[in-house]
Amino acid sequence: MTILFASDLDQTLIYSQKSMGESVSEDDLQEVERFEGKPQSFMTKKSQEALHQLAKQIFFLPVTTRTQTQYERVTGIYEGEAPPRFAVISNGAVILENGQPIKEWSDRIREQCVSKKTIVEELLPKIDQYFSEDWVLRVREADGWFVYLIIDREKFPVEKLEFYTKTFKEIGWSMSLQGRKLYFMPESITKAGAMEYVKHRINATYVVAAGDSLLDMCLLESADLGLLPAHGEAVQSHAIAEHIEITEKKGIKAGEEIMEKVMSISRKFE
User: Fold this and answer.
1) Which of 21, 100, 109, 175 has an alpha carbon 20 to 30 Å from 65's alpha carbon atom?
2) Contact indicator for 172, 116 with CB cutoff of 8 Å
3) Is the pLDDT confidence value at 236 over 80?
């Protein structure tokens, strides 16, 4: 039996100093990412040890909205120098196999985006039309696949989020507000679709998925068991299916709880 553990990274398995929530002793933390010479993301030592151990028993699949450059900074999620065989990046637009993008997959996604006119070039004028307010600090493209805004959360009009979500959904784009980032994702790019591709490649028979955002919900819904951190945006803004469990803890301790749950499942199927 092959168990696939497909997990989001940021605010699910790994956490910045600002996102880790409750106070955690520095002695309990393990740096897993460094950026520009400074520690960027962490796991608890207990979580990291569990993940390294599990990777020897089940198939670990990182599933992230990060681009390849951003993903490759997170070296602490695997033991030694060899990263996982597969990794889903750019929210599912790209699948890495042994560190290299699978061309046939990304070509297929690109064709779908072009046919539905959900490409960055079509989106940017709409963003200029609706988001000229002073709460938009920067507009970023992710390798030509999708767009995200860096925003001032204090000035962001939360009461308009439902209107914005509906407006962009009508033209084929989903939205997700994560911290200071507001994502615009083509409907053809999903974490679930990429996970299913890997699932078939490795002939997995049982899937556990973890993730905290609205962009993760399709992944959790497609799994046999979904694990949702209690701090996740999806907890309050999305109907939760019966097979999706919400953690009792929040922040970096939720990541630890997720690892404990996956470990128990691994032992169950031994």
Assistant:
1) 21
2) yes
3) no
The neighbouring-strand residues paired with 223 are: none
- Confidence (pLDDT) at 238: 64
What CATH code would you report for 3-109+189-268? Answer: 3.40.50.1000
Name the DSSP class of 241: P
As beta bridge partners, residue 207 has 4
* Two tokens, residue 184: 């615009």
Q: Give the number of other Cβ atoms within 10 Å of residue 131's Cβ.
A: 15
Distance CA 38, CA 149 (A): 24
User: Which CATH fold topology does 117-186 show?
Assistant: Hypothetical Protein Ta0175; Chain: A, domain 2 (3.90.1070)
> Residue 103's pLDDT band (boundaries 50, 70, 90)?
very high
Collapsing DSSP states into helix, strand and coil, what is residue 93? coil
Q: Is the pLDDT of residue 14 over 90?
A: yes
CB 208 within 8 A of CB 265: yes
Nearest to 177 by CA among 149, 204, 205, 202: 149
Query: What's 11's DSSP letter?
Result: T
- Best mean pLDDT range from 15-19, 25-29, 91-95, 127-131: 91-95
Q: Where are the domains of the chain?
A: 3-109+189-268, 117-186
Across the range 88-105, mean pLDDT stands at: 98
> What pLDDT was estimated at residue 237?
67
53 secondary structure, DSSP code? H
pLDDT band at 263 (very low <50, low <70, confident <90, very high): very high
DSSP line for 156-194: S-GGGHHHHHHHHHTTTEEEEEETTEEEEEETT--HHHH
Q: Which residue has tokens 């605010």?
A: 11
Give the Cα-Cα-Cα angle 252, 254, 259 (nearest 5 degrees): 100
Does the pLDDT at position 29 exceed 80? Answer: yes
